[in-house]
Amino acid sequence: MRAGTWVLLFAAGVSAFAQTHWVGTWAASPAPQLPEAARMYASKLIFADQTIREIVHTSIGGDTVRVRLSNAYGGQMVEVGAAHIGVRAKEGSIVPGTDRVLKFGGRSEVWLSTDAPALSDPVKLDVAAGGDLAISIYLPKAAEGAGIHYGASQTNYIGKGDQTRAETMEGAETVGSWVFLTGVDVLAPESASAVVTFGDSITDGARSTGNANHRWPDYLAARLRERGGNEVGVLNAGIGGNRVLRDPADNIRFGMNALARFDRDVLSQAGVKYVIVLEGINDIGHPGTSAPVRELPTAEDLEAGLQQMIERAHEHGIKIYGATLTPFAGTAFPGYYTPAKDAIRKKVNEWIRTSKALDGVVDFDKAVQDPANPDMMLPAYNGGDHLHPGDAGYRAMAGSIDLGLFQ
């Protein structure tokens, strides 16, 4: 074969390889694990010779996949003796023939360093868009759960011994959190990208139907799939109770402040091109309830925090869209709402709509408010506490987003 032919073949191979890249199809944001939380969840989040099988719902598909494990906020190294991935059949079982071993640098076991992630090697598996995967992690030695997303709105499974290869786990307990698992990526066309939905419990899907994937980011992912064209993965980086400016006052499950976790939960995601930020209502509502009154911010404080996220997103070439804060008058949580607090919300919303600091606006406030009483959520959208929407409200939020923002 002539040298010129080799050059052409090599160039063709490089070109073909360059047509794909990694894009996130699912994600969850971790919060710290502290001793008091460990005692609260005793048998559920302290492991020894156990397998955790965790169920995730994809946004886009592909034929090659990798998994992101995490010891985020963990205080000790953790040994993972084995990890597998498969297509979920129902509950905690997997579709026969889809089980795949996950390796890390060619090894079937991996040590998770303190507060560190571990990225698996690529594995061939047909991953459906809008489908379910089951990721199984075996922990042979005593380990305190870390990389925890507490409010999964998804049932996961824990069984004795190494059941990572089992199609159906035996004697499994259930847990409503994701542990040691923060992401799944697929190999996707070069035109594909991801949007991170960054926020609090409203993004996390509080008050939505469990095990149904009825969070507003799920509905957005479904709309994007129906649109066709360029694929856009939707990564949920919501944490219930999260605040922009401050760490939790008394509940570590609320996660570190949004400014502190922005790099881990947004900038480090595979293929991220866009971020929608819906944060700030807890900064306003928590003071005087689960946080000291002195922590109540001004609208300008919150705007400055959002401006920091804008600058950091733009530094990485990411477009950032601001979502207006939704109505919360009449909320069931005493002290969370006051007219003075609502004035802060409205001022922040006006800044989001008019400052032109953001690359676009998603007006969730208008999408769910009651036209007869704009300070309150429309009754049909209320999830029951006049703060969180239910399934219909989350669908309305996703339906209000201009898909032209993702080109």
The largest β sheet comes out as: 6 strands, antiparallel
β-sheet strand percentage: 25-35%
Per CATH, the class of the largest domain reads Alpha Beta
Number of domains: 2
Q: Report the CATH superfamily of the largest domain.
A: SGNH hydrolase
Alpha-beta content class: alpha+beta
What order do the strands of the largest sheet run in, or round the barrel if closed? 7-6-11-3-13-14
Question: How is the CATH topology of the largest domain named?
Answer: Rossmann fold
Task: Please describe what this structure looks like.
There is one protein chain. This protein has 407 residues and is α+β, with helices and mostly antiparallel strands. The protein folds into 2 domains: 42-181; 189-405, SGNH hydrolase (Rossmann fold), CATH 3.40.50. The relative contact order is 0.14. It has helices at residues 3-18, 35-45, 201-204, 216-227, 258-267, 281-285, 299-315, 339-354, 364-368, 391-399, and strands at 20-27, 46-47, 50-57, 62-70, 78-80, 82-87, 100-101, 110-112, 117-119, 123-127, 132-139, 143-144, 156-160, 173-175, 181-189, 193-199, 232-238, 272-278, 319-323, 360-362, 369-370, 373-377.
